[in-house]
Amino acid sequence: MFADRARIYVRSGKGGDGHVSFRREKYVPNGGPDGGDGGNGGSVILEVDDGLNTLTDYRHVRKYHAEDGENGGKRNCRGKNGSDLILKVPEGTVIKEAESGKVIADMSGENRRFILLKGGHGGNGNQHYATSTMQAPKYAQPGQPARELELLMELKVIADVGLVGFPNVGKSTFLTQVSNARPKVANYHFTTLNPHLGVVDIPDAKGFVIADIPGLIEGASEGVGLGFEFLRHIERTKVIIHIVDASSSEGRDPVKDIYAINKELENYNPEIAKRPQVIAANKIDMIFSEDENDPIQKLKNEFEPEGIMVFPISAISGQGIRPLLYHVREMLDQVPDKPVIFEQEFYPEYMLGDVNEPYTVIYDEAANEYVVEGPRIEKMLGYTNLESEKGFTFFQNFLKLNGILEQLEELGIQEGDTVRMYGLSFDYYK
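The structure corresponding to this sequence follows.
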């Protein structure tokens, strides 16, 4: 079975505890502290593996954790670092935080490796706490705790063009005719239950990747049938080929079918419905009427004024397919040649911090500034590069998701007012 969805639990490694010990050597009765540091815990890392095309492995094993760091030892012996856990995923896998559904990482394009959860740092041994007044410290630092996440993994196929349409309109036959893909073809509904990818080669033109999205039905955007399972795979496509049964061999109205499918696409994701579309009026070898009831002309009259071209084809014989493919290539040339990547919405590095760490948001009347302070704020500023665009976006998301912006607004902050955080000042703008 094609597995394109999985839910798993992951945990990074705990940092090893620092050790408390003292030198005990002959002729050195009161040696100083020599407790070693704990090792760092292993991190959880995602990597794209080009040899994978499903998430099957994650359907059988649901829990994954990196190795904990080893505790420190005597004689300044540092604990061993825990091994990282590397999770291999197929390209196109979107990683989400299970409870909120927010995107953590999209393993597509240049994003081939992503550190999901960092392991805890090892604690310092008691040797670090010796001072002139405290020469025999009897405490050491515990290792940082592990971090854990419940993940939802979704594989969204990467294709330039998506085929959509009701079941049994000939999408699989079309894909077989134009590409190297060999999906199962039969004359009954829902023959295709898995998305199939094929590479289309066109003479004297650049080829493209095409995906046969399993047949949609009305209500698919609300989860009717296998709606969500199907619609997920069209999110990355740049151009849509809408295949209809122009012969109405099953008694369906092709014009109504197109409107029905487009409504499902819009209900699921309005951005998908806005993508360039072309209509492939299939099964013309079964049309015997050329009078005013010509279904091809009806389709053209209905959709071509809206800028959606209609191409009469026969997926079985190949008739009319070549002009359609060249038109699709022209459509792709007019679309920005960059992959559809889902932006990160959930940041484990600060959203999984200790939520009990305090911070304050106050208005300093003397300085006429709003002041935000606290251990959590100080930590965030410590590992964020505000000079980079990505770092500043990270900073803005931190303020929003932790309710800091909301508290500033409750205090009456206005655009242009100054916000101070540990020596850094920012102008507030919505």
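The mean pLDDT is 80.
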